[in-house]
Amino acid sequence: MKIDLKLTYIVLLVMMLSACSRHNTADNPIHSTPSPEPKQTVVPKQTVEPKQTAEPAAPAKPAGTSAVETATQADRPYRAKPPLPVITAGAAEIPAVQASYCWDYLGCADTAIGEMMYDGQTLTVVQPGERIDTVLNYEPQPSSVIVTPVVDEHAYDPVPLTDGGFTAPEEKGVYYFMYFANWTTEDGVHTLNQTSAVFAFEVR
Length: 204
Description:
Layout: H1 2-27, H2 67-70, E1 86-89, E2 92-94, E3 96-103, E4 107-109, E5 124-126, E6 131-135, E7 144-151, E8 154-155, E9 165-167, E10 173-184, E11 191-203
Parallel strand pairs: 5-11
Antiparallel strand pairs: 1-2, 1-6, 3-4, 3-11, 6-9, 7-8, 7-10, 10-11
């Protein structure tokens, strides 16, 4: 009887130990085998290259800006200043002095006439009744040319011109004249340019 009780006790003890072992394995985290953590896959970082900003295009050059096109008309030789007439008496040249004008982009300028403008010039001596020629070396030629005598700083009626010339007075003395040249439109309605000059000579 004692043997049976001892055996029974031993069996119960083994059963208790076995139950405790199962309990610790299933429910006790201390004794449980930790589950392996999932490996984190390292994704390599992609290098993003910075976008290249296109350089702004250079501004286009304005058309029609050549040296010739940008030059004003006043810079051109044939328009730089009003032309002066060439006044001659035979082989002798009579000086001409620029007077009033309205010329291209130079605008207009008013001056005195007669003796005041001719001050300092050497008087050319001509013969009584000698032919006085006036020539304007300029193209286009003026639409009209008139020559008027000046007395006491006043211009009088034009002298008759024949092929650009006229006859010197018969009486001796110093004579002043104004030369006027005028350029107009083809219909003669509008004035384009005009210039004048004073000249003088002495009849002996």
